[in-house]
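Today's session is about reading a structure prediction critically. Students often jump straight to the picture, but the first step is always the sequence itself: look for stretches that repeat, for charged clusters, for runs of hydrophobic residues. Only then move on to the predicted structure, which in these notes is written as discrete structure tokens rather than atom positions. Here is the chain we will use throughout the hour.
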Amino acid sequence: MKYFPTDWSEALDQLPRYLALSPGARRVVLAMRPSQGAGPTALGPFRDELLDSEFVVPKGSGATVVPADEVRVLHTMLRAADRRRLWDDPSPGALMGYLEEHFTTEEMLATSGSRGWNFAADRADLMHTVTSVEWVETFLAADTRKAATAWEAAHAARSERRRFDDHHTWVATRRVVQTLLAAPAPVPLASLAEHVPDLQTMDVAMGLEAALRYLLVFLSLRGPESEPVVWVWPQVRARLGAPPPGRPEPMEPAESFEAAWLMEDMTAVLAQAAGEPIRLRGTDQAIFAAARKAIEERLITVPNWMGINALEAEKRVEHAADVLRLAGYARRSGRSGQDLSLEPTKAGMEWLSASTRDRLAALVDQFRASKARRPNTWYEEEGLEFFPVRLSVDLPKTLDLRKWLTDSFLALHGEPVRIVDFLAYASERENPFLEAVREGTPLRIPWHGRRPARHDWERLWGQILLEFLNERLAPLGGARMGRTADGWLTFVLTDAGRYLLGAAKTFEYGTDAQAEVIVQPNFDVVFLAADPRLEAQFARLAQRVGTGPGVMFRLTRASVLAAAETGISAAQLLDTLRAASSRALPANVERQVSDWLGAVRRVQLRPTLLLECPDPETAARAMSAAGKQVRAITDTVLELPGATTKDRNALVKKLRAQGVFVS
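Below is the predicted structure for this chain, in token form.
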């Protein structure tokens, strides 16, 4: 190590001199260069205090003072511990600085087992290694002298002395580490020996030196008092000093939200496209702002407290458009930069005309139909995928992550639990990656410079579960999300969620609305309480005018005609209004809606090709050549209905054979 002593006995003996100084005098000492010392200006009002403490002595006959010889080892250590105040900010950045301050490159490479190919990756590997639970666990598991020397041989540089060849050093190092693991906070260096009364001061010094060298513990100054403290890495202590997480306990939320907002968003986008193809930008195939804002007005309100990414209205619209295409309900048509647009497919129009429950079932069925038993590395699967994440891990084919995921969610038995408790238990206690490692199954992360540690596998499995909750269950109405009075997020599976996971044969959706909704004679729709499912139904039929309880929608001619354009009939629309409304529909509303829809007519728009002939004789020759392909509109104008490029070319060829040329 660069600046920490190899023998801590002298530094510990002299430490009381430093601790006897005032905070101001300590700052002067820490700023003092050992060889240059400090002059009157730097000493300021602390000169007499420092001289009386004998921490410094005059340099020659001048006014400059330097550290006394007996404190030089301590002074060097204190300055190094001051430069990297790890315990003021135990962050990855601070730890990186700590490593580079105190360790040589040879020591760092030996500790982590890196090969020295990449400077940044090597440092990152070392940080990852020494902050992992396994790092301390494997050291403490080496409970014999032979095992301890083997552990040290794997992590010491070739040029280093072997500390654990000495039995006392090995025993003392274990005791120091165990003692600091039991401490609830960083321990002042001056009182470390008091925490291990069964060791002699010299043994404590040897154990501290070895523990610091192998990054089992960390030392730095802390706070305005500039006191040296030592402790294990906080996350390691938190894990090793706490019991393993138990099964999540039921936790009733103060507020909750349940709605298949992805399906409702898709309905809003497709309904817009059914009226008129939605123009797309040529650069990124995104929806133009004007059309997007019109769709956003139809979206149901999703609370931001759920902490789910991509809840912004713009992202929801684009995501819904993407899922529509993947599900086969919409397609892009036209040319980029000219008339590129999103339009519904035949399957999409059929889906749009189905009931709310059937639309959701058809969408969920596509996710269920995915054959994937684990997340894909690349976008290999066409259509909608069961897993919402990519996984760059080489897994054996026998590892069925879909079953593990399904079992984790279904084990909750229908009661709300805190998400953090669910993830902690599943990540540590029901983790397929850790189970595979325990069984000796080789798992590998390609292009990864280090061997994954246990907390890597825990974090990865937790991420997969959380992404599935946030991007599959919640948006598809498969989970009722909640928030407790003190801000913790909860969830519970719904019947739709159990259906998605394959544990139910069917489900109901949209039949248990709880809010009271009143359609008023002035065509306003009043919500007396929030209900996202009813909100989604009215978003298809009425113009949004509010976002909370109160007047949220208004039935207008334009909104009713827009609904009719998607294929809904007058009877269906009125039935929907009656089912959603808590009171009977006002007679004038029923009559006006019926009148608006009664005026609806549908016409067919189709392409055609006209042949304009100079005279009736030419028209007769053209009809003779074309046969039944054409029909006469006038005595000189012929029509080729539904003409395609192939039809046109065939007609031109026939006319040319008769000496009639198309100009």
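Discussion point for the tutorial: The mean pLDDT is 88.
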